[in-house]
Structure formats: structure tokens, C-alpha cells
């Protein structure tokens, strides 16, 4: 589903964020991306979300060669990727419902379908009763779940998360990870960048470990 | 299916339209100031245009009294002159012809000037016979009348043909100059409206940078992101155009009194034409076009600069 072949990412100031990276994630797989700060985790996710482009090498996602994708097709490509961020990236002047509905509104879904799918997504993350609230009225964990609902509402085949539990306490973090597992169980490919090693070592998923922009090791299922 | 998609499309546009109107409504003071700037900028050339239209109207009223005096050659006798007058009456461009003999002219001049004794000393009547021609001023352009004058002058019996309303042509020229000036002024002020709206939209874009980034991250196309800003420009322009219309009406209302007084001093039936109906359509429409264009320029310029990081 996601395949990196000899990928380099160099920024203009000669700083090399990724060097000769190759790895593959299977369709329907769930995996963690770990490594020290500055190891290149965020850069790697940005390459998958086409926020950045690789300087060299090939990135294939869902059978699309991202190095060749023209800019005008980027929005349509991004609709196949659910993105979850550490700082949620919610729109603070819109209700929870409107935030989750955003990808569907963009895709031009009709009104009734939007209502149905948004409520299904909010139900999944346990926030159905908060749909009329503004994000500011929610706790950090709840805001993160709104972010997750928004990422999955249009049923993307790939779900990416960048430090989704970075600001949460261990119990909430476990809930969030459990939520990701549930999406994985219905066939979504899930790739989560995290440094919450204590949490993920209890979970039976592969780890892609980066060190200074290179692949340091890949663990098999750790349990 | 296509029908349903189209309905969805229209519905989304309507939603964005109302959403942007709501945003404008929630900042009443800032929005009102923008409307005023646009309104005043549009009202200025519009009021000048209305005044000019009125002057034009007055001058066309006066076309009716334009007349051409044909001074006949000295050797033309009364009979021949009468015949010429009857002939001229048949010309399609001419509505009325009257003849005044040389002796009658002399009599008139004697009466008006009071130079009795001096005139008695002249051996012959120095005044020519005159045929006064009234062209069909309502249906004829100024250059056609000019053409008519030269044709009349070319007649063998006519010494000189003189259009009495040359000052009217001058007024028309002044009017034309004024119109050109107003066009330029209107163009410049339209440009300023474009820039005002462009700048307002630019600020709105900067205010919503983080929102634009989020929309791009979840797959929003540039068209989708552009849409609310274009509608914001649409509202600013259209509502600014309405403000311009109201400003125009107030201006005309203030001018109306003095103009009526002026007209009554000239025994004129003249009343100010407000053009309020056509202006009510024209000003908001112009505003709308400028608004959407200004927004388009601002969005095109700034949107591509905002990318998620």
C-alpha cells in the first residue's frame, strides 16, 4: 500500500532529513514509525501526504507514483489519506459536526449523506453528543478524537497519524490507539508516528525505526 | 444522477453565499466602512453622469428652436424668394419655412434701432431678404444639420446660410468633453474599488491562513478554497453598489431644490431626471463585477502561497 524505494529528502539548507530510505507497508497493515526527535518521522509522513516531495527515489501509495503526481491532482490524492495531527488542526470557529463534515463537503457529498456519515464517525469515536459544541469546549483527548473522526469520515484506505497521543495522558493514549486498531480491523492501512514506546511495545504491530534519516531497523510483530 | 449533482452544486453555492454573508454580518462596523468606501467611489462618477445626462436632455429640448437664416442675394425679387420658400418646404429635413422680405427687414430694423434719419439717407435698402428655415432638429444629428446648412448655402439664390444655434454645438462639445472626463474618472474610481476589495479579501485570506491550510490538508481544491472569498467580494461589491445608489439619491435630492429654482428663473419646465431605476440596477451590478474581479485577483495572488507545512 505504501512503498518507499531509496528515498532521499534534502532541504535547501543542505540538511538531509531522509537518506536512502526503503520500506513497504502492506495493504491493511498497521505499523508504528518511531525514532528520536529529528530522525525524520514527520518528514516521512509529509512525503506520504504530499506536503513535501522526495528529492530522490520513489514513493508509491495505493498504486500511485507520488513523484509524478501533478500539483492539481494533489487535492484528490489527499482525499484517499486520512491525516491525524498532534495539534488536531481543527477549525475553531466551526462546530464539531462541521469540522468532521469538512472532507465530505469538499468532496461534494449531498446533505443527507453528510449527516449520516458524520454521525457514524462521531459515534465511532464516542462524541455523538458533542456535535453542536465548538472544539474549544472539548478536552484535549476529545479534540483528538474529533480529529480522528474527520480523518476517517470519508473512509480513506490509508490513515496517517503524527504523534496522535503526544499531549495525552497514558489512559487516553491507550483509548486513542485502540481506536486506530478498530479502523485497522476494518481494513484501513494505519501508520502512526510516535515516541510513546511504552505504549506500543504492548501492541502486536511492526515498528519502522528511523535513526538520523535512515532506516535503523524494522521489528516484526513485537508480541 | 446528473440532475442531482447539479442540485447539490447549486445548493453548495447557496450555502457558501449565505455563509459569507453571515461572516460579513458578524463584523458590522468593518463591513460598513468597506461598503461606504466602495459606495462613495461609485457614487461620484454616477452623480456626474446623471448631471451630464440632464444637461444633454436640456440641449436636445433646445434643438427644436434651432433655425437657419438664409440671406438671399440682393437681386432676388419677392416673387422669386417666395418660390424658393415654397420649394424648401418640400424638403424632408425641413419642418417649417418663413419668408421675410428686404423691405420688411428694413422696417423692423428701423423700429428696433431708431436710426430713422440715417436709414433715410441710404440710396437703396442694404438689407437682404431672409428665408428662415426650421430643420427637423429632433430627428437630425448635428452633422446632418451642418450638411443641410452647406447645401442651402450652395443654392444659387442664397448669399449666406447661418445656423443660429452654434452655441448649442459648443455646449454639446463641452458635454462630450465632460463625458470623456467622467469616463476616465469612473475608470479610475472603479480601479480603486477593485483595489479596496482586493485588499479586503487579502486581509481575509491572511486571517484564515490556518483554515486554508487545514482545508488543503483534507483535500480541498483551489476552486473550493477560492469560492467563499469570491462570494465575499460579490457581497462587498453588490452591497457597496447599493450604498452608492443611496448616496446618489441623497445627492440628487440635495441638488433638486436649487435646480428647480434656477429652472423657474429661466421660465423652463426643466426637472431633474434621477435615473434612479436604471442606476439601481447598474450600480450594484458594476459593484458586483468589480467585487468578484478584485477578489479573484487577491485570491489568485495569495492562495498559492499558503501551503500546509
From TrEMBL, chain A:
Q: Locate the ABC transporter domain: which residues?
A: 2-223
The reply on keyword Cell division is: yes
- What SMART domains does the database record attribute to this sequence? AAA (SM00382)
Please classify the protein's predominant subcellular localization into one broad category: membrane
Entry's Gene Ontology molecular function annotations? ATP binding; ATP hydrolysis activity; transmembrane transporter activity
Kindly state which keywords UniProt assigns to this record, in alphabetical order.
ATP-binding, Cell cycle, Cell division, Cell membrane, Membrane, Nucleotide-binding
Coiled-coil spans are none
Identify the Gene3D superfamilies for this entry: P-loop containing nucleotide triphosphate hydrolases
Q: Name one GO cellular component term.
A: plasma membrane
**Gene Ontology BP term (one):** cell division
Q: Name the membrane topology term.
A: Peripheral membrane protein
Q: Kindly name one Pfam family recorded for this protein.
A: ABC_tran
Name its cellular compartments: Cell membrane
* PANTHER family in UniProt: CELL DIVISION ATP-BINDING PROTEIN FTSE, IMPORT ATP-BINDING PROTEIN
| UniProt family annotation | Belongs to the ABC transporter superfamily.
Identification of the protein by name: Cell division ATP-binding protein FtsE
Organism of derivation: marine sediment metagenome
Automatic annotation (TrEMBL), chain B:
Q: What is its main location?
A: membrane
Keywords of the record: Cell cycle, Cell division, Cell inner membrane, Cell membrane, Membrane, Transmembrane, Transmembrane helix
What region holds the FtsX extracellular domain?
67-159
All residue ranges annotated as the ABC3 transporter permease C-terminal domain in the record: 184-299
Which residue windows are transmembrane per the record? 29-52, 182-205, 234-255, 275-299
GO cellular component, alphabetical, reads: cell division site; plasma membrane
* Biological processes per GO annotation: cell division
Annotated compartments: Cell inner membrane
**Topology in the membrane?**
Multi-pass membrane protein
Alphabetized InterPro entries for the sequence: ABC3_permease_C, FtsX, FtsX_ECD, FtsX_proteobact-type
**Subunit text:** Forms a membrane-associated complex with FtsE.
Q: Which family does it belong to?
A: Belongs to the ABC-4 integral membrane protein family. FtsX subfamily.
| Name under which the protein is recorded | Cell division protein FtsX
Q: Which organism is it from?
A: marine sediment metagenome
Amino acid at each position: 500500500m505504501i512503498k518507499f524505494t531509496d528515498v532521499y529528502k534534502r532541504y535547501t539548507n543542505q540538511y538531509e532529513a531522509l537518506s536512502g530510505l526503503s520500506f513497504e507497508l502492506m495493504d491493511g497493515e498497521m505499523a508504528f514509525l518511531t525514532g528520536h526527535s529529528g530522525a525524520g518521522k514527520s518528514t516521512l509522513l509529509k512525503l506520504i501526504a504530499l506536503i513535501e516531495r522526495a528529492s530522490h527515489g520513489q514513493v508509491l501509495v495505493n498504486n500511485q507514483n507520488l513523484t509524478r503526481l501533478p500539483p492539481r491532482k494533489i487535492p484528490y490524492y489527499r482525499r484517499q489519506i486520512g491525516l491525524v495531527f498532534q495539534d488536531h488542526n481543527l477549525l475553531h470557529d466551526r462546530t464539531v459536526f462541521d469540522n468532521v463534515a469538512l472532507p465530505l463537503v469538499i468532496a461534494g457529498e449531498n446533505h443527507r449523506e453528510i449527516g449520516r456519515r458524520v454521525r457514524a464517525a462521531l459515534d465511532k469515536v464516542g462524541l455523538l453528543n458533542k456535535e453542536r459544541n465548538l472544539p474549544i469546549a472539548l478536552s484535549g483527548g476529545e479534540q483528538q478524537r474529533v480529529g480522528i473522526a474527520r480523518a476517517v469520515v470519508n473512509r480513506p484506505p490509508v490513515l496517517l497519524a503524527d504523534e496522535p497521543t503526544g499531549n495525552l495522558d497514558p489512559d487516553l493514549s491507550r483509548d486513542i490507539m485502540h481506536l486506530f486498531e478498530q479502523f485497522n480491523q476494518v481494513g484501513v492501512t494505519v501508520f502512526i508516528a510516535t515516541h510513546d514506546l511504552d505504549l506500543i511495545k504492548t501492541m502486536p504491530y511492526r515498528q519502522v525505526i528511523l535513526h538520523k534519516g535512515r532506516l535503523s531497523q524494522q521489528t516484526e510483530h513485537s508480541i | 444522477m446528473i440532475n442531482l449533482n447539479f442540485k447539490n452544486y447549486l445548493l453548495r453555492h447557496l450555502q457558501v453565499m449565505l455563509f459569507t454573508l453571515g461572516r460579513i454580518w458578524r463584523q458590522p462596523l468593518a463591513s460598513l466602512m468597506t461598503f461606504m468606501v466602495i459606495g462613495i467611489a461609485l457614487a461620484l462618477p454616477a452623480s456626474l453622469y446623471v448631471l451630464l445626462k440632464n444637461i444633454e436632455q436640456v440641449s436636445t429640448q433646445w434643438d427644436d428652436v434651432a433655425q437657419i437664416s438664409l440671406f438671399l442675394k440682393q437681386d432676388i425679387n419677392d416673387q422669386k424668394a417666395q418660390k424658393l420658400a415654397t420649394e424648401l418646404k418640400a424638403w424632408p429635413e425641413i419642418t417649417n419655412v418663413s419668408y421675410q422680405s428686404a423691405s420688411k427687414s428694413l422696417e423692423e430694423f428701423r423700429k428696433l434701432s431708431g436710426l430713422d434719419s440715417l436709414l433715410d439717407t441710404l440710396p437703396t435698402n442694404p438689407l437682404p431678404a431672409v428665408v428662415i428655415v426650421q430643420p427637423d432638429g429632433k430627428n437630425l444629428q448635428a452633422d446632418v444639420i451642418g450638411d443641410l446648412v452647406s447645401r442651402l448655402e450652395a443654392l444659387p439664390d442664397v448669399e449666406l446660410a447661418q445656423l443660429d444655434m452654434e452655441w448649442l454645438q459648443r455646449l454639446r462639445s463641452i458635454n462630450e468633453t465632460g463625458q470623456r472626463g467622467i469616463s476616465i474618472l469612473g475608470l479610475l474610481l472603479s480601479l480603486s474599488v477593485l483595489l479596496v476589495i482586493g485588499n479586503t479579501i487579502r486581509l481575509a485570506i491572511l486571517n484564515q491562513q490556518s483554515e486554508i491550510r487545514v482545508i488543503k490538508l483534507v483535500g480541498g481544491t483551489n476552486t473550493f478554497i477560492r469560492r467563499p472569498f469570491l462570494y465575499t467580494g460579490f457581497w462587498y461589491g453588490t452591497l457597496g453598489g447599493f450604498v452608492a445608489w443611496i448616496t446618489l439619491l441623497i445627492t440628487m435630492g440635495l441638488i433638486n431644490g436649487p435646480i428647480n429654482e434656477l429652472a423657474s428663473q429661466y421660465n423652463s419646465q426643466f426637472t431633474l431626471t434621477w435615473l434612479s431605476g436604471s442606476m439601481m440596477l447598474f450600480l450594484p451590478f458594476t459593484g458586483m463585477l468589480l467585487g468578484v474581479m478584485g477578489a479573484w485577483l487577491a485570491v489568485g495572488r495569495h492562495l498559492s502561497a499558503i501551503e500546509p507545512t
